[in-house]
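Lecture notes, continued. The same structure-token format from the folding unit now serves as the input rather than the output. Read the line below as a description of shape only.
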């Protein structure tokens, strides 16, 4: 039985994926030559490719700029009060809504900024929140 289990595991985790992995690796190395990636430790490479998954939400709040708003405006204070009460999963969903990804890029949260802007709609009570992901701008009606 032990031999069967060993052979089965070898097949599942090695032999069955060898060809697809080699194809992937060949394509990856064509676009990203290996000599450039060797300077990273595996954990660092993962951050470069995927971004940071652990986020200091209060630091994110400090990095925000405001357009047609001031930091102490009631709408802004209410927004951050509600935001900080959200569970982690919902905060990451907001980040994906804002930027297109639920992770912070590899260059770090200190350099990640976004803007909250007043869209100047006629009836703010009937307007929806929307975002421009390219410019990381959140349009927040008053």
């Amino acid at each position: 039985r032990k031999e069967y289990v060993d052979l089965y595991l070898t097949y599942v985790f090695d032999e069955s994926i060898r060809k697809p992995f080699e194809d992937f690796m060949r394509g990856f190395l064509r676009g990203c030559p290996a000599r450039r990636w060797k300077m990273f430790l595996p954990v660092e490479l993962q951050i470069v490719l995927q971004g940071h998954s652990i986020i200091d939400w209060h630091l994110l709040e400090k990095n925000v700029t405001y357009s047609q708003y001031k930091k102490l405006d009631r709408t802004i204070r209410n927004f951050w009060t509600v935001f900080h009460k959200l569970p982690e999963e919902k905060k990451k969903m907001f980040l994906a809504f804002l930027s297109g990804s639920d992770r912070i890029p590899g260059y770090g949260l200190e350099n990640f900024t976004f803007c909250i802007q007043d869209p100047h709609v006629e009836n703010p009570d009937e307007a929806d929140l929307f975002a421009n992901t390219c410019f990381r701008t959140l349009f927040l009606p008053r």
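Point for the exam: Helices lie at 2-15, 18-31, 34-37, 42-50, 57-62, 74-85, 88-99.
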